Amino acid sequence: MSLHILPGRARIATLRPLATAIVVMLASAAAQAQNQSMEERLRAQLRITTTQLQQAQNELAAFKGGAAAPSTPADIEKVKKDLSNSQAAERKAREQLSGVKQQNQAALDKAHAQIAQYRGAYDELLKLARASEAERQRLALDTSTQARAVSQCEAKNAQLYAVGQEILQAYESVDMATVMSARQPFAAQSRVKLDQIAQQYGDKLYEGRFDARSSNTAVEQARSQ
Fold first, then answer.
1. pTM higher than 0.85
2. Are both 12 and 88 inside the same structural domain?
3. Contact, 39 vs 97, CB < 8 A?
4. If 93 and its partner were Cys, which of 27, 46, 113, 217 is the partner (CB 3.0–4.6 Å)?
5. Torsion angle (degrees, nearest 10) of CA 22, 28, 33, 39
6. pLDDT digits (tens, 9 = 90+) for 67-80
7. What is the C-alpha to C-alpha distance for residues 188 and 182, in angstroms, rounded to an integer?
8. Is the torsion defined by CA of 26, 31, 37, 40 positive or negative?
């Protein structure tokens, strides 16, 4: 199984959604902070407006109760107008505050949804990275095992070459008298000697052969570790 390594552009394209997610999250956090600052200002304005409304209500109640009689009817109208303006300002401030709260809640819900989405994307990227690392380690193990198999093959070939050289030297040293005596019926001793030599060289050739099955077994054992 071959490992498909992503080129530079492909890796950038893979990581681009994560970078975009981070930028969006930062922008959402900045917008949420701005909304919170606006909410604090509206709360302060609402407190001021409520205080003014309370003062206007107290003044109107005092006029109605006769505790502080106004100099002219215009003063009463002015107090009523101030009270009406204060009530309108309070309603507006409460409406604005409610709108900002709704915006903050919507931004918070959106941020939570984006965080869940980008967390899933991050987990997927992490899974891919771990799979790629596991594949890299497997290929590294296969490469190392193949290198050992090639080294064994070269060593076996060297042994076979050495055995072949020994055979050539041995037959070069056998004289004609030895060969002729081996063909005679009474030359059993010489024939046995040659058979022993042939058996020895046969054993060396068998030991020096390269067995692909043993190499494959070594590969499987290395993988299972």
1. no
2. yes
3. yes
4. 46
5. -170
6. 555 556 777 677 77
7. 7
8. negative
